[in-house]
Amino acid sequence: MSTSDASTPATADRSLRGLLLLLATIAGVSVANIYYNQPLLDDFRQSFPNSGSWVGVVPAVTQLGYAAGMLLLAPLGDRFDRRRLILLQIAGMCVALVLASAAPTLSVLIIASLAIGVLATIAQQAVPFAAELAPASERGHAVGTVMSGLLLGILLARTAAGIVGEYFGWRAVFGASVVALLVLAVVIIMRLPKSKPTSTLPYGKLLVSMWHLVVEHRALREASLTGAAMFAAFSIFWSVLALLLAGAPFHLGPQAAGLFGIVGAAGAMAAPLAGKFSDRRGPRSIITVSIVLVAISFVVFALSAKSIAGLVIGVIILDIGVQAAQISNQSRIYALKPEARSRVNTVYMVAYFIGGAIGSGVGAVVWPIFGWIGVSIAGVVFAGLAAWNHLRLPANEKNLT
């Protein structure tokens, strides 16, 4: 099956939309697996009382596994059929989820969680696949559509896990994910076309070539650093929000922080629209606007230390800004070297998550010393770093390659 096989433009458009929605579902369902364990930590502690002090390792190794999977597995999309890679990773994920669901000890759960993180990088095959399927004039919209699915998976995973875990136990969360992945695999076999490998490099050289891409493409370096700074701002807010809500005057539990994730779905809904604007206006101008929105969001946060309404408004602005920049950055980098989209995506996403880790780390240091105002100032500083990196280079895209 191919989008070019359709007999009319209208049929081709419907076919492409269907494929993009499928890829969005693949991205969301797969990436959700690295967040399911976060609201279940107390349940883990009760199930494994002799190892209760180690339950925090579970989400940590899951995130570590995801970073490793991005580096080691995501580049394979240039070397092999992405459809086959997605199905193989789903099969491996189901095995890891069954192991997690049946884990007799915390150690087994930790091992299974590491494997889940590595294999959840299915999402990093779906996004460049969308860029491959869509014509160049619609690439931003295509990437935005798939990213909206990925973002919804991230935002709603904790809510879903909390509900299932409360009524059926934490083991049922992993079991339900197996069922969802198996159903998804059937749909993939029926609907998703094969992709065409664009590289014959051996695995080792494939990994080394990512460094060559960094050296060769100035736009990739710029987009990666800008994206890292934006995600650092995003992460510093979300890493400290629960602490703010737990204190005066709110005195709210972790469930309230989870509900803010639903508010953040506004950013996910805006992703396809941001992609369309990127296609029409050019990605660099959208990134500039996005950086301004992120800076404004932290000004709103600084003024909302005692206002739920203010925090909600700030979250919406923050998520729209970060996600619009993400879509526009990815639209740019996928045009740099079409035959290396998976590797280009890997470089960008590794930098992106490093930025997120830095943001979380800064939040952990700033919060106990300077409080919420310090966190807000740090967020503005990260937006400023993104602006400096983005605006110091020539606006002409050709000069950045």
Which CATH top level class of the largest domain fits?
A: Mainly Alpha
Biggest sheet statistics: none
Bulk shape: globular
Domain module tally:
2
Helix-and-strand structural type = mainly alpha
**Could you give the count of β-strands?**
0
Termini, distance in Å? 33 Å
Strand content: under 5%
Tell me, rounded to a whole number, the average pLDDT. Answer: 84
Q: What letter string, H or E per element, gives the SSE order?
A: HHHHHHHHHHHHHHH
- Write down the CATH topology of the largest domain: Growth Hormone, Chain: A
* Number of discrete helical segments: 15
CATH superfamily of the largest domain: MFS general substrate transporter like domains
State the oligomer.
Answer: single chain
Q: Helical amount among residues, as a percent range?
A: over 70%
Secondary-structure arrangement, i.e. CATH architecture of the largest domain: Up-down Bundle
Radius of gyration of CA atoms, rounded to a whole number: 21 Å
Transmembrane segments: 18-36, 56-73, 85-103, 109-131, 143-164, 170-190, 228-250, 256-274, 286-302, 308-325, 346-363, 369-388
Pfam family, one: MFS_1
GO molecular function, one term: transmembrane transporter activity
Protein name: Transporter
